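Preliminary data (for renewal application), adenosine monophosphate complex.
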Amino acid sequence: MYLFKKISSLRRYLELFRNKNRPIGFVPTMGALHEGHLSLVRQSLEAAQCTVSSIFVNPTQFNQASDLEKYPRTPTTDLTMLYKAGCHAVFMPSVEEVYPPGLETQVEVDFGPLALPMEGRFRPGHFDGVAQVVKRLLDIVEPQKLFMGQKDYQQFLIVQHMARTLELPVEVISCPIVREKNGLAMSSRNQRLSPEQRERAAALYQTLQQAASWARQLSPREVEAKAMEHLKSLGLEPEYFELADGQTLQPVPDYSSPASVVACAAIWVGGVRLIDNLILK
Ligand code: AMP
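Predicted structure:
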C-alpha cells in the first residue's frame, strides 16, 4: 500500500492505472476508521482495479469549532486497517494541500430543497463544505467510481446531485450501513461514547425499526411524533426524526405516492451527535 501526502505524487502513481484504462475506485473518509469504512474499501476492491482511500478531516464541513477539535483521529490504526483490507493507496493530505491559498474551491451548485431539511437545517453550511471537499478530492483522484455510505443518506444524494449537475465522469455508489451487534450504526463518533451510552444509543436503530411497523397504522407525521417521544422517554435527545421521500427528501404526505420512503434521524447522546436512517419503502 502506498501512502501519499502530496497531490503531485498521488497523480503520478494514478497515471499508471489511467494509462492502461484501469478503473480507479475512491473511498473518501475522515479517518478514525471502522468496519463501515472498510466495507466501502472492499466494495471498491471488487469493482475497480485500483482503490484509493483518503483520510482528511475536512474543516470546512464542521459548523462548530469544538466538534472539529473533538473529532477522533487515529491515523496509525487507520493505515494498518487499510493495509490489511488490501487498499492500494491512501491519500492523507494537509489542509494546505487541499485548500492552497488563492485556489477557489467553493462549489457553485444549487442543491435546492435537497440541502434544506434534516442535516441541512441543523448543520448550516455543512453540505457546502461536503460538496467542496468531495469535488476537490474528485478533481485530484479522478476516479471512475466513488463509494459512499448510505449511513449519510442526505450526503449521498447531495454528492450524486453535484456529480450529475456538473457532469462529473464518476459513478456515485451507495453502500449499505454496517452496524454493531446491538444495531448501532458504526460511526467514528461512537469512539466518544461510554459502553453504557453505546447501549443506550442502540435505541436509535430500534426506533427506526419500530417506525417501520408503526407506519402500518399511523400517518407519517404521527410516526415522527411517536418516534420523537419514544426517543425522549429513553433519555436520548432527538434533533429530528423525519419520514421523507427517498429521492427528494421532502416530507411524505402518505406512503403510497413516493417511490421510496426513508426514515432519517439525528440524536444527541452525552454530547455526541449520531445519525442513522432506514429505508421503509
Ligand atoms: P466519514 O469518515 O464519517 O466521513 O465517512 C466516510 C464514508 O464512510 C462516508 O461515505 C460514510 O457514509 C461511510 N460510512 C460511515 N459509517 C458507515 C457505516 N456504518 N456503514 C457504511 N458506511 C459508512
